[in-house]
Amino acid sequence: MKVLVTGGNGLLGHNIIQKLINGNHKVRAIVRNTDSVLIKHNNVEVYKGNFTSYEQLLDSAQGCDSIIHVASATDMSLDYNDFYNVNVKGSQTVIQVADKLNINTIVYISTLNTIGYGCMEHPADENAEMQYPFTKSYYAITKKEAENLFVETSKKEGRHVIIINPGFMIGAYDTKPSSGQLLLMGYKKPIMPVPSGGKSFVHVKDVATTAVNALTMGRNGEKYIATAHNKTLLEFYTIQKQIFKYRQLLIPIPCWVTNSVGLIGDLLRKVGIKTQVCSRNTRQLCVKEYYTNAKAQKELMLPETALEQAISDSIYWLKNID
């Protein structure tokens, strides 16, 4: 199978490319900078282009049997129109190209934030409605809008369209870094203030496995939560310091302090100072986002790598530790 991968230069994109290679698939990656794809292999073609351009995406998709659409705007300093142009209009372009070339298999990588979160005793499944504060997140809103587009295209005859909702992914090939910033914030810091929220963590290679499995598995038009470990941020940083054996004082921070920082970010934005800090984002750090992966395990064979291994692989990559 020849697979077009958008966003092949990011954390998940690299891991998907590696998984496809391991499965003897051929890969076409479309990126703006060809040097940003670090995996070099005879079965990997890197096409220079922007996936939001219909002509460039059409050229890159020629001869492909399927598409795994990973690329999206994630910079929290962007405004709604910036997110919309990439996450929604870009997804429309992917669908238009698939229609033009009769590519019937599409795997769309969304986010857990389009699904309402549960609690430790009752983790949320794919049917949970999107909840505040993510209903105020431009990123989550536009990813939800894109999901709706893929659900609609799944209704066309002969289509196999799967939506993957990954948890908080960590692991190797975090090139920006993206999610790895959470780990680096606490790595070997003597004192670490920790917000009161929690996340559903997952090794990125497990999400990559699930995405590749979704090319031939799963039910058309369905969403699948790809995650593994529900932990508070305090528990997460405790595990990290235990793995790398450093001493650290972890100080729980009440929500009112976290939200106050967000309000300061709001003021900075109003006076024209660009920052990723704002109340829409800091409120998310107070939420315990817990989910079940039962559906993805059953239907897409989602693996479940230990959180300790995921943290180790991420830090070893980020810090270039031998």
Essential attributes:
Rossmann fold; alpha/beta; seven-stranded parallel beta sheet; 11 helices; 322 residues; three-stranded mixed beta sheet
Which SSEs are present, and which pair or pack?
Blueprint: E1 2-6, H1 11-22, E2 26-31, E3 44-48, H2 54-61, E4 66-69, H3 80-101, E5 105-109, H4 138-153, E6 160-166, E7 168-170, H5 180-186, E8 191-195, E9 198-203, H6 204-213, E10 223-226, E11 229-232, H7 233-244, E12 249-253, H8 255-270, H9 279-282, H10 294-300, H11 307-318
Parallel strand pairs: 1-2, 1-4, 2-3, 4-5, 5-6, 6-10, 7-9, 8-12
Antiparallel strand pairs: 9-11
Helix pairs in contact: 1-6, 2-3, 3-4
Structure description:
- Helix 1 (11-22) links the parallel strand 1 and strand 2.
- 39% of the residues lie in helices and 18% in strands.
- The protein starts with a strand and ends with a helix.
- The chain has a seven-stranded parallel sheet with strand order 3-2-1-4-5-6-10, sandwiched between helices. A three-stranded mixed sheet has the order 7-9-11.
- Helix 2 packs across helix 3 and helix 3 packs parallel to helix 4 (138-153).
- The protein is an alpha/beta fold and 322 residues long.
- It is globular.
- The longest helix is centred in the first third of the chain and has 22 residues, at 80-101.
- The protein has a domain at 2-173 and 200-230 and 290-305: 3-Layer(aba) Sandwich (Rossmann fold).
